[in-house]
Design a protein that fits this description.
By secondary structure, the chain is of the alpha+beta class. It has 9 helices and 4 strands. The two termini are 35 Å apart.
Length: 224
Amino acid sequence: MDEPPRFELFAFWRTSATYRVRVALNLKGIVATERFVDLDAGDQRSDAFLAINPLGAIPAVLDRGAGQSRAPLTQSLAILEFFDEMYPEPALLPTDPHGRARVRSIAAMLASDTHPLITPRVKKYLTGPGGFDDAAWRAWQVHWFTTGLQAVEHRLASEAETGGFCHGDTVSIADICLASILVVMRVFKVDVTAIPTIERIMRACEAQEAFAKANPLIQPGAPR
């Protein structure tokens, strides 16, 4: 009898952070059992899920390997590096310290400085106690997507280390984070102009099966 997958991924179809982990799993050829957490229904605030991640955020990963009890893995960047260390091929970080720092820096610009500003919990506060109407929330999304992506575009267009992808000619964590922002922008129907380098790199990413299979719109729970 085949053993069940070692990893459980707590996921939601739409989120940028879940997309990152799905891409990494696809690139590494890792099969994980997905547990659907319906953010729109508030499942992330259930006692059961808060026991896994007290922040109530996804993704989260449980490692069932060797029958040992381990703390859940949370935060998408930490999860990406975990899988890269556990399964080194294909590598998602360069081998040299400067290259690794650059990839981590670009990834953080996207996953730490841009994405958190448009998450459901931020929207809930701004459209509740913050007093935002739909137009103000839309303007907030456009502003922060634009600010983040145009800053990344400047780096990618001006730094010699940029190649076919964000760093050289192989996919890295930076590309995964970049694509994760763009796919969610499409879901929200937000456009950012004057980012030709980013658009070129996104096309290269989406030509790869690992990215195409992670498309939010084909995941369980996505609207049909």
